[in-house]
Amino acid sequence: MNSTSEQDSTAAPTTHGRGCNVALLGFGTVGSSVAKILCERPDSDVRLTHILNRNVARKKVDWLPSSVKWTEKIDDILSSDANIVVEVMGGLQPTEDWIRRVLSSGKSVVTANKQIIARCGPELISLAAQTNQQILYGASVAGGVPVISGLQSGLAGDELFKIRGILNGTCNYILSQMESKGVAFADALREAQKLGFAEADPTEDIDGLDARAKLTILARVGLHCNVDPETITVQSISRIEAIDFEYASQLGCTIRQIAGAEISSAGLKTGAEAEQAHAERSSLLAAVGPALVALSSPLARVEGSQNLVVTTGTYGGETVFGGHGAGGHPTAVAVVSDILAIAHSKQAGTSTGAEDLKASASKTPSAKTSQVSADYTAKHYLRFFVKDQPGIIACLATILSSFDINIDSVLQKPGCPKTRLPFLITLEECKASLVERALRQLNVLEFMVEPCLHLPIL
Ligand SMILES: NC(=O)c1ccc[n+]([C@@H]2O[C@H](COP(=O)([O-])OP(=O)(O)OC[C@H]3O[C@@H](n4cnc5c(N)ncnc54)[C@H](OP(=O)(O)O)[C@@H]3O)[C@@H](O)[C@H]2O)c1
């Protein structure tokens, strides 16, 4: 093992003959798996040459070739002979600045960082094009599932208008444990943390922020809609209780955290207007949160930490991508695939960042900036906890009917405590905003123990 070493070359590296040199930023779960795969590959198309990590001494391992240089300084990487820099440190800063500096120094980037790509992906792609480099981010959505390349290449010939998926393994693990074992949310979360499926601070996952970043990237790549991630509505899974799985099951459904985006032409009267809205991609329906999914749907069968993405296209109909959405090795597979794609294009001398951008612009429409709304039309699940007294259903029904909302069914599990009595009302199809307006009146009624849980039934 070598100690920290600086190279004196400041010029952009070139690929001499066969092979590309790879530098890793971050030697954690994904970084160490990437290193392992690169070192175990039989061919030498790509060579791991540098690893950067803070407090690097404690990170060194004995299974890497002694030629690999370890460092704590980004300047060592910038001035090195690495052609491709793999960012698997995570976080927003200094990571974003370092990615910009790497691209500006004439090196390509592979990243697994969904938050950075969701926030400033187009800017970074454009910077890469200016410097004749590439930035690939296949691992940023659904870990080892090749959904980004599937959308960019495999489905480029279709006109996709809807993407729906289970993009967060932590939430899926918690919800599928609650479903199969009937345990409370807090117990399922504790178990997930014990097994390493959930972080010590699980907020990003539970509250939907992780899935929202991934949905932003999918909407950009698959639907050609550029949206600000902050404008996508998120709902936490933390209010789901064991009773909700009992009610869902009576409706032939289960509950999953669903991230969905759909090009919207809602409210437009003529076919021509709808076609125009579709072409302009000016409006996107998008949301992340728990939802009821039919037991017959592929989304209901996603167990544990698996991910699944279902796309719908005008010509090809539904396509399903599924597999390991996280974990060192599966995510590293996506990273290494991106490294190889860049290495091969560099070796063939065919594809610089600028050429890629032109090529993809001629193949697919570029992403347009879209307004986001969460005002979907669906059937709705309303679960109440009330202090029992006569006339509750009549009171709720009166308010709902004043909004022109039709009740589909009412379910009440017998034998529950009268001081916190759970019951369910399902609604016929209507807009989510209408239900929310009605709930503002319902939630303040004196018999309500807590605000109603409102979920879409997909
Ligand atoms: N793990 C997955 O299953 C998965 C799946 C898909 C995408 N990703 C993405 O992949 C990236 C890496 O995830 P991970 O799970 O491998 O994280 P990780 O295990 O925490 O590894 C990150 C590594 O980067 C180092 N690091 C962090 N900030 C640094 C800084 N400012 N300077 C130098 N070194 C720094 C950390 O050092 P310390 O040891 O000092 O913390 C650690 O070794 C993230 O963007 C994540 O969202 C992960």
Structure explained in plain terms:
There is one protein chain. This protein is an alpha/beta fold. The protein has 15 helices and 19 strands. The chain has helices spanning 29-40, 74-78, 95-104, 114-130, 147-154, 169-181, 185-194, 203-206, 209-222, 242-250, 271-280, 328-348, 353-363, 392-402, 432-442, and strands at residues 20-25, 46-52, 69-71, 84-87, 108-111, 135-136, 160-166, 225-226, 233-234, 253-263, 283-294, 306-313, 317-324, 368-369, 371-373, 377-386, 407-412, 421-431, 448-457. Strands 7, 9, 10, 11, 12, 13 and 15 form a 7-stranded mixed β-sheet that branches. It has a 6-stranded parallel β-sheet with strand order 3-2-1-4-5-6, sandwiched between helices. It has a 4-stranded antiparallel β-sheet with strand order 17-18-16-19, sandwiched between helices. α4 crosses α13 and α14 packs across α15. Mean pLDDT is 90; it is low at 1-12 and 352-365. The structure holds NADP nicotinamide-adenine-dinucleotide phosphate. Residues 26-31, 53-55, 88-91, 94, 112-114, 139, 143, 326-327, 331 line the site of NADP nicotinamide-adenine-dinucleotide phosphate.
